[in-house]
């Protein structure tokens, strides 16, 4: 048995929020030999997680009827995949849970919606506290909260628009007939690359940092969503109006720091696989 595999077996990883992305990350980490537990708010999902090898933990933050505060198992690394809508109103309680778990490293899933639509390429330092047209004010405040937990090193991964198994490109077009900004670039990332990025952080445990996770290639909305609609057998959307303000997410920092290469660098190529 290799030393790295032996070390992975000793680490306990907690995934707070075993949804679409959290469950995929848990499955990957189990295969690598880590001990993984995952939280859920639904008793119906307990058996599903258990079958995947993920130890299920029932966790309902912000529950006013709870007689006592929930407690997490002893943990080495925590991955926070809860949605901002859940995290933000319960941020103090979640921070306390993380601190009391004994975790030394936190991976926080954030989003590239922290960047302004300024018709430029945006890097990690370009995020702004703006309430409109994106949710940067909440996401950045959330990042600040969890980057300052005493004794915990935090890595923030800002994911672009997510797609992958069960979340195929173009599915959201089923209830939309008009899409604006036909020439605007899309910023997307495949689930597999998100999971791989999480694995890199767990393996390296780097100093605190913030990184964009986004595919290399940025097709236009018209190119991508026309092809995506055709691929799933629906009418392509009608594109209306001129191009709108946009951003193009730069992903160089994560690639340069960790030698990371995307398995899904071009979302257009992925359309051929669905």
Describe this structure in words.
InterPro entries: NAD(P)-bd_dom_sf, NAD(P)-dependent_oxidoreduct. This is SDR family oxidoreductase. GO terms for molecular function: aldehyde dehydrogenase (NAD+) activity. The protein is α/β, with parallel strands linked by helices and about 270 residues long. It has a single domain (about 5-165, about 190-215, about 245-265), classed as NAD(P)-binding Rossmann-like Domain (Rossmann fold, 3-Layer(aba) Sandwich). Helices cover about 35% and strands about 20% of the residues. It has 10 helices and 13 strands. It has helices at about 5-10, 20-30, 45-50, 85, 90-100, 135-145, 190-205, 220-230, 250-260, 265-270; strands spanning about 10-15, 35-40, 55-60, 75-80, 105-110, 120, 155-160, 160-165, 180, 190, 210-215, 240, 245-250. It has a 7-stranded parallel beta sheet, with helices on both faces. Strands 6-13 form a two-stranded parallel ribbon. A two-stranded parallel ribbon has the order 8-10. Helix 3 links the parallel strand 2 and strand 3. It is globular, with a radius of gyration of 19 Å. Residues about 1-10 have low confidence and may be disordered.
């Amino acid at each position: 048995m290799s030393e790295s595999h032996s070390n992975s077996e000793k680490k306990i990883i907690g995934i707070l929020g075993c949804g679409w992305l959290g469950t995929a990350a848990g499955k990957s980490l189990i295969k690598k030999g880590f001990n993984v537990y995952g939280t859920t708010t639904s008793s119906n999902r307990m058996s599903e997680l258990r079958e995947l090898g993920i130890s299920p933990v029932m966790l309902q933050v912000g529950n006013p009827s709870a007689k006592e505060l929930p407690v997490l198992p002893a943990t080495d690394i925590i991955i926070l995949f809860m949605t901002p809508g859940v995290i933000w109103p319960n941020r103090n309680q979640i921070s306390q849970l993380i601190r009391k778990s004994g975790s030394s490293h936190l991976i926080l899933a954030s989003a590239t919606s922290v960047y302004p639509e300024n018709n430029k390429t945006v890097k990690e330092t370009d995020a702004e506290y703006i309430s409109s047209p994106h949710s940067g004010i909440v996401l950045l405040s959330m990042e600040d909260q969890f980057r300052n937990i005493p004794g915990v090193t935090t890595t923030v991964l800002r994911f672009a628009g997510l797609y992958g198994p069960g979340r195929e490109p173009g599915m959201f077009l089923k209830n939309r007939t008009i899409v604006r900004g036909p020439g605007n670039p899309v910023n997307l990332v495949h689930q597999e690359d998100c999971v791989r990025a999480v694995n890199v952080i767990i393996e390296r445990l780097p100093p605190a940092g913030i990184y964009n996770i986004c595919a290399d290639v940025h097709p236009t909305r018209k190119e991508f969503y026309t092809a995506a609609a055709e691929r799933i057998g629906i009418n392509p959307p009608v594109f209306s109006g001129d191009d709108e303000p946009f951003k193009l997410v730069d992903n160089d920092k994560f690639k340069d720091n960790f030698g990371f290469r995307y398995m899904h660098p071009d979302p257009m190529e992925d359309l051929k696989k669905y």
